[in-house]
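Posting this for the archive.
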Amino acid sequence: MAIMYNDLYLDVRRQLRESGVEAATLEARELVCFGTGKSREELTRDGRLYASPEREAQVRRLVERRMAGEPVAYLIGEWEFYGLPLDISQSVLIPRADTEVLAEQAIAYIRDQGECRVLDLCAGSGCVGLAIASQAPQARVILGELDDSCLKICRQNIRRNGLSGRVTPVQMNALEKPARSLGEFQCIVSNPPYIPTGDIPGLEISVRNYEPHLALDGGEDGLDFYRAITREWRETLAPGGRIYFEVGIGQADPVLRLMRGQGFGDLEVIKDRNKIPRVVLGTLCQEI
Protein backbone atom coordinates (compact mmCIF):
# COMPACT_ATOMS: atom_id res chain seq x y z
CA MET A 1 0.00 0.00 0.00
CA ALA A 2 1.30 3.43 -0.93
CA ILE A 3 2.24 5.77 1.89
CA MET A 4 2.33 9.58 2.02
CA TYR A 5 5.67 11.25 2.65
CA ASN A 6 4.45 12.73 5.91
CA ASP A 7 3.26 9.35 7.18
CA LEU A 8 6.55 7.77 6.12
CA TYR A 9 8.45 10.37 8.11
CA LEU A 10 6.21 9.86 11.17
CA ASP A 11 6.63 6.09 10.94
CA VAL A 12 10.43 6.38 10.76
CA ARG A 13 10.45 8.79 13.69
CA ARG A 14 8.35 6.37 15.75
CA GLN A 15 10.74 3.50 15.00
CA LEU A 16 13.75 5.53 16.00
CA ARG A 17 12.12 6.77 19.20
CA GLU A 18 11.12 3.26 20.20
CA SER A 19 14.71 2.11 19.69
CA GLY A 20 15.98 4.85 22.02
CA VAL A 21 17.40 7.35 19.50
CA GLU A 22 17.44 10.72 21.27
CA ALA A 23 17.46 12.84 18.11
CA ALA A 24 14.70 10.81 16.45
CA THR A 25 13.00 13.85 14.90
CA LEU A 26 16.18 15.15 13.27
CA GLU A 27 17.38 11.72 12.16
CA ALA A 28 14.01 10.71 10.71
CA ARG A 29 13.91 13.88 8.62
CA GLU A 30 17.45 13.37 7.33
CA LEU A 31 16.87 9.71 6.45
CA VAL A 32 13.61 10.38 4.63
CA CYS A 33 15.07 13.36 2.76
CA PHE A 34 18.12 11.41 1.66
CA GLY A 35 16.19 8.24 0.81
CA THR A 36 13.62 10.08 -1.30
CA GLY A 37 16.01 12.60 -2.83
CA LYS A 38 14.11 15.56 -1.42
CA SER A 39 15.29 18.69 0.35
CA ARG A 40 13.78 19.57 3.73
CA GLU A 41 11.59 22.19 2.06
CA GLU A 42 10.42 19.72 -0.59
CA LEU A 43 9.58 17.12 2.05
CA THR A 44 7.38 19.65 3.86
CA ARG A 45 5.78 20.80 0.61
CA ASP A 46 5.07 17.26 -0.63
CA GLY A 47 4.05 15.79 2.73
CA ARG A 48 0.58 14.75 1.51
CA LEU A 49 1.80 13.24 -1.75
CA TYR A 50 2.45 9.51 -2.05
CA ALA A 51 5.97 8.14 -2.11
CA SER A 52 6.80 5.65 -4.82
CA PRO A 53 7.44 2.06 -3.67
CA GLU A 54 11.07 2.43 -4.74
CA ARG A 55 11.60 5.53 -2.63
CA GLU A 56 9.87 4.00 0.37
CA ALA A 57 12.01 0.87 0.05
CA GLN A 58 15.17 2.99 -0.05
CA VAL A 59 14.14 4.77 3.15
CA ARG A 60 13.32 1.46 4.86
CA ARG A 61 16.76 0.09 3.98
CA LEU A 62 18.41 3.16 5.50
CA VAL A 63 16.33 2.80 8.65
CA GLU A 64 17.35 -0.86 8.99
CA ARG A 65 21.01 0.14 8.85
CA ARG A 66 20.42 2.90 11.39
CA MET A 67 18.65 0.48 13.73
CA ALA A 68 21.69 -1.81 13.47
CA GLY A 69 23.85 1.03 14.79
CA GLU A 70 25.19 2.84 11.73
CA PRO A 71 25.14 6.62 12.32
CA VAL A 72 22.93 8.79 10.14
CA ALA A 73 25.83 11.06 9.14
CA TYR A 74 27.64 8.12 7.55
CA LEU A 75 24.45 6.88 5.90
CA ILE A 76 23.77 10.20 4.17
CA GLY A 77 27.41 11.30 3.79
CA GLU A 78 27.03 14.72 5.34
CA TRP A 79 26.28 16.58 8.57
CA GLU A 80 25.93 20.16 9.79
CA PHE A 81 28.25 21.93 12.22
CA TYR A 82 27.97 25.54 13.34
CA GLY A 83 25.59 26.17 10.46
CA LEU A 84 27.98 24.77 7.85
CA PRO A 85 27.13 21.79 5.62
CA LEU A 86 29.97 19.26 5.73
CA ASP A 87 30.86 16.15 3.77
CA ILE A 88 31.36 13.21 6.12
CA SER A 89 32.89 9.78 5.60
CA GLN A 90 33.86 6.96 7.95
CA SER A 91 37.41 8.37 7.89
CA VAL A 92 36.35 11.23 10.19
CA LEU A 93 34.49 11.63 13.44
CA ILE A 94 30.96 12.93 13.16
CA PRO A 95 30.89 16.54 14.42
CA ARG A 96 29.08 16.82 17.75
CA ALA A 97 27.07 19.68 19.18
CA ASP A 98 29.41 19.63 22.20
CA THR A 99 32.30 20.60 19.93
CA GLU A 100 30.47 23.78 18.91
CA VAL A 101 31.42 25.10 22.36
CA LEU A 102 35.09 24.76 21.37
CA ALA A 103 34.44 26.63 18.13
CA GLU A 104 32.44 29.46 19.67
CA GLN A 105 35.00 30.06 22.44
CA ALA A 106 37.83 30.28 19.92
CA ILE A 107 35.79 32.46 17.55
CA ALA A 108 35.10 35.01 20.31
CA TYR A 109 38.85 35.32 20.92
CA ILE A 110 39.98 35.31 17.29
CA ARG A 111 37.53 38.02 16.22
CA ASP A 112 39.45 40.44 18.46
CA GLN A 113 42.87 39.54 17.07
CA GLY A 114 42.69 41.26 13.70
CA GLU A 115 44.65 39.49 10.98
CA CYS A 116 45.99 36.30 12.47
CA ARG A 117 46.90 32.67 11.80
CA VAL A 118 44.98 29.83 13.42
CA LEU A 119 45.82 26.12 13.54
CA ASP A 120 43.12 23.48 13.91
CA LEU A 121 45.20 20.49 15.01
CA CYS A 122 43.73 16.98 14.65
CA ALA A 123 41.23 18.61 12.31
CA GLY A 124 39.31 15.52 11.15
CA SER A 125 36.54 16.84 8.90
CA GLY A 126 37.85 20.39 9.42
CA CYS A 127 34.66 21.38 11.22
CA VAL A 128 36.21 23.57 13.93
CA GLY A 129 38.67 25.39 11.69
CA LEU A 130 36.03 25.97 9.04
CA ALA A 131 33.59 27.35 11.61
CA ILE A 132 36.30 29.76 12.76
CA ALA A 133 37.09 30.88 9.21
CA SER A 134 33.40 31.41 8.44
CA GLN A 135 32.94 33.65 11.47
CA ALA A 136 36.32 35.45 11.57
CA PRO A 137 37.07 36.63 8.01
CA GLN A 138 40.41 38.18 9.01
CA ALA A 139 41.81 34.81 10.13
CA ARG A 140 43.87 32.46 8.00
CA VAL A 141 43.31 28.87 9.10
CA ILE A 142 45.46 25.76 8.72
CA LEU A 143 43.71 22.39 9.07
CA GLY A 144 46.37 20.06 10.47
CA GLU A 145 45.64 16.37 10.04
CA LEU A 146 47.72 13.20 9.69
CA ASP A 147 45.37 10.88 7.79
CA ASP A 148 45.16 11.21 4.00
CA SER A 149 41.47 10.27 3.94
CA CYS A 150 40.69 13.01 6.45
CA LEU A 151 42.63 15.55 4.42
CA LYS A 152 40.53 14.61 1.39
CA ILE A 153 37.36 15.38 3.37
CA CYS A 154 38.92 18.64 4.59
CA ARG A 155 39.56 19.72 1.00
CA GLN A 156 35.98 18.86 0.00
CA ASN A 157 34.58 20.86 2.90
CA ILE A 158 36.79 23.87 2.19
CA ARG A 159 35.47 23.96 -1.37
CA ARG A 160 31.89 23.25 -0.33
CA ASN A 161 31.84 26.26 1.99
CA GLY A 162 33.68 28.64 -0.33
CA LEU A 163 36.68 29.06 1.98
CA SER A 164 39.51 28.08 -0.38
CA GLY A 165 41.16 31.48 -0.12
CA ARG A 166 41.55 31.41 3.66
CA VAL A 167 41.74 27.78 4.75
CA THR A 168 44.56 25.36 3.89
CA PRO A 169 44.80 21.63 4.71
CA VAL A 170 48.27 20.46 5.72
CA GLN A 171 49.44 16.97 6.67
CA MET A 172 51.00 16.94 10.14
CA ASN A 173 51.40 14.62 13.11
CA ALA A 174 50.22 16.17 16.38
CA LEU A 175 52.37 13.74 18.38
CA GLU A 176 55.60 14.99 16.80
CA LYS A 177 57.52 18.24 16.96
CA PRO A 178 56.39 20.55 14.12
CA ALA A 179 58.73 21.82 11.41
CA ARG A 180 59.94 25.39 11.87
CA SER A 181 58.70 26.17 8.37
CA LEU A 182 55.13 25.90 9.65
CA GLY A 183 55.49 29.37 11.14
CA GLU A 184 53.75 31.03 14.06
CA PHE A 185 50.11 31.05 15.13
CA GLN A 186 48.11 33.34 17.35
CA CYS A 187 45.76 30.50 18.25
CA ILE A 188 45.70 26.70 18.25
CA VAL A 189 42.44 24.79 18.61
CA SER A 190 42.34 21.04 19.01
CA ASN A 191 39.77 18.31 19.54
CA PRO A 192 42.28 15.45 19.73
CA PRO A 193 41.67 11.74 20.33
CA TYR A 194 40.98 11.45 24.07
CA ILE A 195 39.29 8.12 24.78
CA PRO A 196 41.49 5.84 26.95
CA THR A 197 42.43 2.77 24.91
CA GLY A 198 40.81 0.40 27.38
CA ASP A 199 37.48 2.24 27.22
CA ILE A 200 37.00 1.86 23.46
CA PRO A 201 35.49 -1.68 23.57
CA GLY A 202 32.81 -0.36 25.93
CA LEU A 203 31.67 2.52 23.72
CA GLU A 204 28.19 2.40 22.21
CA ILE A 205 28.01 0.40 19.01
CA SER A 206 27.51 3.42 16.72
CA VAL A 207 30.87 4.80 17.88
CA ARG A 208 32.83 1.60 18.48
CA ASN A 209 31.93 -0.14 15.24
CA TYR A 210 31.72 2.79 12.84
CA GLU A 211 33.80 5.81 13.87
CA PRO A 212 37.56 5.72 13.21
CA HIS A 213 39.57 4.47 16.19
CA LEU A 214 42.49 6.60 15.03
CA ALA A 215 40.40 9.65 15.96
CA LEU A 216 39.24 8.16 19.27
CA ASP A 217 42.26 6.50 20.89
CA GLY A 218 44.10 8.89 23.20
CA GLY A 219 46.42 6.30 24.70
CA GLU A 220 46.34 4.45 28.01
CA ASP A 221 44.91 7.35 30.01
CA GLY A 222 43.48 9.34 27.10
CA LEU A 223 46.00 12.17 27.54
CA ASP A 224 48.74 11.32 25.00
CA PHE A 225 47.80 14.09 22.58
CA TYR A 226 47.45 16.74 25.28
CA ARG A 227 50.94 15.90 26.54
CA ALA A 228 52.45 16.08 23.07
CA ILE A 229 50.66 19.24 21.95
CA THR A 230 51.36 21.26 25.10
CA ARG A 231 55.02 20.17 25.04
CA GLU A 232 55.91 20.12 21.32
CA TRP A 233 53.58 22.68 19.78
CA ARG A 234 53.89 25.54 22.27
CA GLU A 235 56.80 26.87 20.20
CA THR A 236 54.47 27.49 17.26
CA LEU A 237 52.39 29.89 19.35
CA ALA A 238 53.19 33.58 19.27
CA PRO A 239 53.98 35.10 22.69
CA GLY A 240 50.66 35.64 24.38
CA GLY A 241 49.01 33.21 21.96
CA ARG A 242 46.21 31.01 23.14
CA ILE A 243 45.35 27.33 22.91
CA TYR A 244 41.89 25.78 23.15
CA PHE A 245 41.32 22.07 23.82
CA GLU A 246 38.18 19.98 23.85
CA VAL A 247 38.40 17.43 26.67
CA GLY A 248 36.49 14.34 27.73
CA ILE A 249 34.58 13.82 30.96
CA GLY A 250 36.94 14.00 33.93
CA GLN A 251 39.90 15.27 31.88
CA ALA A 252 39.72 19.01 32.51
CA ASP A 253 41.88 19.01 35.66
CA PRO A 254 44.63 16.73 34.26
CA VAL A 255 44.82 18.84 31.10
CA LEU A 256 44.99 22.03 33.17
CA ARG A 257 47.98 20.59 35.05
CA LEU A 258 49.72 19.66 31.79
CA MET A 259 49.22 23.16 30.42
CA ARG A 260 50.39 24.83 33.61
CA GLY A 261 53.55 22.71 33.56
CA GLN A 262 54.36 23.95 30.04
CA GLY A 263 54.03 27.64 30.86
CA PHE A 264 50.40 28.35 30.04
CA GLY A 265 48.56 30.84 32.24
CA ASP A 266 45.12 32.46 32.44
CA LEU A 267 43.74 28.93 32.44
CA GLU A 268 40.00 28.51 32.18
CA VAL A 269 37.48 25.68 31.91
CA ILE A 270 34.26 26.11 29.92
CA LYS A 271 31.25 23.81 30.37
CA ASP A 272 29.13 22.54 27.51
CA ARG A 273 25.37 22.82 27.27
CA ASN A 274 24.99 19.80 29.56
CA LYS A 275 27.12 21.51 32.25
CA ILE A 276 30.04 19.15 31.61
CA PRO A 277 33.56 20.69 31.57
CA ARG A 278 34.30 20.54 27.84
CA VAL A 279 36.87 23.20 26.85
CA VAL A 280 40.18 24.04 28.51
CA LEU A 281 41.99 27.17 27.36
CA GLY A 282 45.19 28.94 28.31
CA THR A 283 47.56 31.70 27.20
CA LEU A 284 51.24 31.12 26.53
CA CYS A 285 53.34 33.11 28.97
CA GLN A 286 56.44 34.93 27.72
CA GLU A 287 58.72 32.62 29.70
CA ILE A 288 58.34 29.31 31.53
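Residues 119 and 142 are 5 Å apart (CA to CA). The two ends are 73 Å apart (CA to CA).
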